[in-house]
Amino acid sequence: MLGRPVPEGRRVVRRSSAGRGWVAVSRNPDSPPDGRRSPRRATDRVEDAVAWFLMVVGLVVLVVAWWTGIAVYDGSVESASTMIQTRAVLLEDAVPDTSGEAGVRPAVRVDAEWVDPDGVEHTGRIPVRHPAPAGTAVEVWVGPNGDASTTAPGRENAVIAGFVTATGLLLGGGVVLGMAWYGVRFLTAACNARRWGREWERVGPEWSDRLR
Question: What does the domain layout of the chain look like in residue ranges?
């Protein structure tokens, strides 16, 4: 059985009439001598350039994600250091749901009022995990903006915030870079296929006549 001749610098072969395997019948005149590499296609050079560019961009994304995570961590630590502990008074009964697993008490949000560091009164909803009637005072931590939280500020929260931010940037950047690379590979493969089709239209009839 005859194979298609390859127009890009490869030896064209066919089975010997004497039954001794495959023998060369011709060579593309544009192909390099034996022992030398075939000339690179323009699409190969494009892929190499894009690969180097995407690697540089990937390093930039890594550095940006690292420094952004550190900035978020520092900001969270600074914000936690400005929070003060005070008490909020519940304006309604807190009745958490106790129908779940033993020992698990999901928080219920109830109306409460508290005073910020500047002495300004605030009213809002805070989470409460234990049953408490209206008028009960609960410990809260209030920031400079007046928002109250029943969770004590800790360094672990800052670590989690920085880690989540950095990881999100890395994942987002990786997805964008991966899509860009596969897009380039798709385009170069399409260009190579069209080039192959044009070359086969040029040399196909000639080789068909020679191999008849």
Answer: 1-39, 42-82+153-212, 84-152
**pLDDT value of position 61:** 94
What is the rounded end-to-end Cα distance, in angstroms, of the chain? Answer: 12
Distance of CA 8 to the CA centre of its chain: 38
Running DSSP on this structure, what letter comes out for residue 84? Answer: E
Concatenating the DSSP letter of every residue in 100-132 gives SSTT----EEEEEEEE-TTS-EEEEEEEE-S-B
Q: Which residues pair with 94 in a beta bridge?
A: 132
Name the percent of the chain lying above pLDDT 70: 74
What does the pLDDT average to over 57-76?
93
Residue type, 105: R
Residue at 63: amino acid letter? V
DSSP-derived secondary structure letter, 94 = B
Q: How far is CA 201 from CA 2, 5, 43, in A?
A: 18, 12, 20
